[in-house]
């Protein structure tokens, strides 16, 4: 019998690389497709260093359906782990059509090719953003979705609905929709991590770039929220815990689960200032910051109810806030410019 592969779309990106490491270490064969719009194949080289395994990788855009088909012809694929997409909230507000075209259009192409090749198992990267402003806390999977205001979040909501419809129409399909809270940190090796292009939008990559001297000062968006210290509260989850949630989801799919949804979070909320303090303590680096007005579209507090994932996937987070900060710093200090070489000063 020929070898079966897990196809990882967006596998050269931040979450994809960490998931590929965990999949390989759990004994799965992996093939990666990525159009490299927000990544480089250097990250896959690092995954190979960590695991000692070769990862077949192809520069493929999901919008190029013929190229996607060729991958399904070349490999015997049993399941798709679908990370590929654009993820910058602010950019999605400016360029909504780009986001709908890439995220929704790319996913529809992928699902059509999967159907054509009778590959009916998918794990999809959704986001806590589908919940919008929480009506209650902690947020469980039954919380209403679809009220988020930015185009990025809406693409996640629409894709969830599309996957649900596909599963309803054909009971052979199985889908695990994973709603991530705030993934941070890096692999223990310090070889792979988050590599934002330009100014980081997210808190912890920004903090790490201040620590390494690439930025002067953190801007804290809002200190007048109804939270213990006035700054926004989120559920930060170590990237390796998150990646391991995907391996647990693989096992769920093998039970023929139909369409199921799980939060991946810790269940604990930390404020922006908690995160700054934890990072300073774990690394000994001072993080200068200034308080600025709230960022448009931000909410005060959100954190997960992770119980369903624990009960049904047998998965829960094990890594502490301290480890998130230490591992992030190991990655950032070993790779001050991410996967790129340092820019020459001449
Ligand atoms: P990332 O940008 O590092 O990874 C996404 C990858 O997809 C990139 O390598 C990019 O080059 C690739 N890609 C983009 N468009 C593509 C296309 N048309 N065809 C093929 N490849 C394409 O982002 P990430 O943080 O690793 O996120 C992975 C997934 O998880 C995304 O779908 C994202 O929306 C979702 N997610 C991320 C977070 C987060 O905070 N990082 C939170 C919730 C959900
Ligand atoms: N944040 C901040 N400064 C930054 C980036 C983020 O104060 O440079 C705050 C933001 O307002 C929110 C928290 O940090 O309260 C997490 O923001 P992030 O963008 O990382 O995640 P998300 O908003 O998607 O939960």
UniProtKB/TrEMBL annotation:
Residues 7-327 form the NAD(P)-binding domain. CDD domains: UDP_G4E_1_SDR_e. Its EC number is 5.1.3.2. It catalyses: UDP-alpha-D-glucose = UDP-alpha-D-galactose; UDP-N-acetyl-alpha-D-glucosamine = UDP-N-acetyl-alpha-D-galactosamine. Keywords: Carbohydrate metabolism, Galactose metabolism, Isomerase, NAD. InterPro entries: NAD(P)-bd_dom, NAD(P)-bd_dom_sf, UDP_G4E. GO terms for biological process: galactose catabolic process via UDP-galactose, Leloir pathway. Gene3D superfamilies: NAD(P)-binding Rossmann-like Domain (3.40.50.720), UDP-galactose 4-epimerase, domain 1 (3.90.25.10). Its cofactor is NAD(+). GO terms for molecular function: UDP-glucose 4-epimerase activity; UDP-N-acetylglucosamine 4-epimerase activity. One of its GO terms (cellular component) is cytosol. Pathway: Carbohydrate metabolism; galactose metabolism. Homodimer. Belongs to the NAD(P)-dependent epimerase/dehydratase family. NCBIfam families: galE, PRK10675.1. Catalyzes two distinct but analogous reactions: the reversible epimerization of UDP-glucose to UDP-galactose and the reversible epimerization of UDP-N-acetylglucosamine to UDP-N-acetylgalactosamine. The reaction with UDP-Gal plays a critical role in the Leloir pathway of galactose catabolism in which galactose is converted to the glycolytic intermediate glucose 6-phosphate. It contributes to the catabolism of dietary galactose and enables the endogenous biosynthesis of both UDP-Gal and UDP-GalNAc when exogenous sources are limited. This is UDP-glucose 4-epimerase. It comes from Elysia chlorotica (Eastern emerald elysia).
